[in-house]
Structure prediction request, 328 residues.
Amino acid sequence: MGGDPWATKVELKKVPTFGDFIQNQYLPYVKAHKRSWITDEGLLRNHAEPLWGKRYMDEITKQDVISLITNHRKTHAPGSCNRLTILLRYAFNLAIRWEVSGITKNPTAGYPLMEENNKLERFLTQEEAARLFTAVTHSDNPMLQYIVPMLILTGARKREVLDAKWEDFDLERSTWRIPLCKAGNARHVPLSAGAVQILNSVPRVNDCPWPFANPKTAKPYVSVFYSWNTARKQAGLKDVRMHDLRHSFASFLVNAGRSLYEVQKLLGHTQIKTTQRYAHLSQESLLSAANVVSDLVPLSAVMPSATVIATTAAANMERLALSAVVSI
Prediction:
C-alpha cells in the first residue's frame, strides 16, 4: 500500500522511554545550564518517573498529565503542582527542540497553572527596622550586626551576602559584583553610603577573603538561623523571615517614590512581573497619592462648610417640628 512497515518499526524503536530521556538527555543538559537542577532531579524522581519511567515518550498524553497533577494536588500546595507542571512542560519542549524521535507535541500544552494565593508579603516598617537593628547589635553572633543591615540596605539574597568576597566590592566606585546570582549570571549592585559604611566597619581577618565569614572558622556561615531567630524574637518580629528583608528593601524604595524599573534593576529581576510582587505600597502612600487630586481640584472653595451644613440641618429639623405641631 505504499508504506514501509520495517522503516516504521525501526523509527518506533528510536523513541526513548521517559526514564531514559530524563537520565540520558535531560539531566546531563540541565546540570550544565540550571543551578536548580537538583530540584528538577528530585521532582522527577519522586513524582514523574515512578509513573512514567518505563513508558515511551510518545505514549504520554494530556490525560496522563491531568491525572498526575490532580493526584499531586491531593498532598501538595498549588505552588508545588505548578512547579511540577512547568518542569514537565520544559522537558517535553526540549525533546521537541532536540527532535527526539516520536515527539511531535507537548502533552502539557494548554494545561493551565493553578492560582497561588499562598505568597506571603511581609514588609518592615521604619520602626520595626530600627528595633531589629538594635536587636542584632546585641546578638551572640558578632557578625549578625553586619549581615542583617547589609541585607536590608542592598536587597541582596542571604547567600549572596554570606558568600560575598572582598574582591567583589569596589568601594571607590560603590559597586558590588555578584559573580553568580539566581538567574545564573553576574549582576552589579550599587552600594549606598550606608552599605559602604557597613563594609568599612566589618573587622578584617588576615587571609580571609569573605567579609561576613564565621570568626571561628574564617569561612562563610552555612546557616545563621539560630542567631537570627533569637534576634527577631527579641525585636518582637518572630514572623519576619530573613528573605523579608529583601521584600522590605523594595517596599522602602517604592514608598519613597522610586519607579518599578529602578526596583527591578536593583533586585536583579529579569521580568517586571516578579518585581511587582515586591512593589508594596503603604496605605499612607496611597492616601498621599489620592490627596493629590484634592489639591489640584480645590472643591472645598465651592462646597458648603461644616458650620453651614450643621445650621441648615438644624433649620430643617425645626421646620419639620413646626409642621408636625400645626398638623396636630
Notes: The chain has 15 helices and three strands. The chain has two domains: 17-97, 126-282.
